[in-house]
Amino acid sequence: MKLPFRRRRTSTAPVDAVDGVEASDTPALVAPIARADRFSVGDLLVEATADVGARPGRLVMTLAGTVLGVGALVATIGFAQTAAHQIARQFDAAKATQVLVTPAKAETGSGGTVATARLPWDAAERMERLVGVESAATIVELSLGTDTITAVPVNDPSAASVASPRLFAAGPEVLEVLGGRIVTGRMFDAGHEARSDRVVVLGPRAAKRLGVNRVDSQPSIFIGASPYAVLGIYDDLQARGELADAVIIPVQTARGDRGLAAPGDLQARILPGTGPQVGEQAALALQPNEPETLEVAAPRASSDLGDSVQSDVNVIFLVLGGIVLLAGAFGIANVTMLNVSERVPEIGLRRALGSTRRQIGAQFMIESVVIGLLGGLMGAAVAVAGIVTFAVVQQWTPIVDPWVAMAGIAVGALVGLAAGWIPARRASRIEPVTALRGGT
Fold this sequence. Notes:
There is one protein chain. 47% of the residues lie in helices and 15% in strands. The protein contains 14 helices and 13 strands. The strands form two sheets. Strands 1, 4, 5, 6, 7, 8, 9, 10, 11, 12 and 13 form an eleven-stranded mixed beta sheet that branches. A two-stranded antiparallel sheet has the order 2-3. A hairpin with a 2-residue loop joins strand 9 and strand 10. Helix 9 (304-342) runs parallel beside helix 12 (402-419), helix 11 (357-394) packs antiparallel against helix 12 (402-419) and helix 11 packs antiparallel against helix 13.
């Protein structure tokens, strides 16, 4: 005998009141209705962020490591870029704007070298016609032989011998090319050059050695037995530092008095970034038939020195920043683990009310990510502000790549994500009964 039972009606057929069986011969079973998950993503975010600011003191201590780590990383790259830019500017003011053209040399049997070619006498004029060349001058060191450079013509055999300054011949544009300046007097010009006048300019150390400190009284020095009028004293050379202890005479004067046979080397001042172009054209402009007989030393478009300094600074500070950031990650992990231990009853109650393991774990993961994100944001902001402030104080141009700051924020979030994984895993494994009984 069948026991009476009741099913959900699937039709409008009448129901037999006696035995409770529907009149339909094909009753249908009804599937259980699934309970809708009422815990949305918004609810998860609210739950995860509600406890972040509940303990401000603990939050500040937790953020400190991440702020320092991310700030160190962002500041490292920013300071390195700013310093490299400043170094490049200073480097461009000297080395990166200098092109040196020298005749090719061949080794001799005695181990020395001898020039196999000569620059033309109008090499400076040819060089200045090239695009990117601001000024050019020939420079050559002259041999004194048995002569000496003195401030008086008297030769005292009993006096102690003193080394003479070095003697150079150069064009009138030499100080402009080398970045020097006249501190007293004037520079010889094209007129002195054309007339082969016996005039000189002195480097600061040469002037001190010869006892010349002013030119208004028209002092003279003697190269051998020949007097030369001192027109000026120069200083602050940005290149060719050996000329600080030198006496410079015009090239044409050296041809007549010292038998100069060739103009020596050619030094040119160029615009920053035009080194490769000028380097390719210089030899053709000076020796179109035999450009291979000249050696051209031109700077690259970028500064190797600046790149090297930036690389070294990056390595040092990135290591330090990584260590601090690791400490920040441990801080976030410890605080998140402490939160899990303190909130075991809450976790058990939420599990008993229907929260899943995934929801509990996601809540603590999001808390860690939010803390890391805040630390990254604050660290990047502090680093950028520090770079700008330091650059302004030093009167530098601050260089901060926006992507570096954004990457710092992302690094903070990743640190929070990595630090919260273990505490979140532990929280998700807490059973409701154990939690409500006070266990962990």
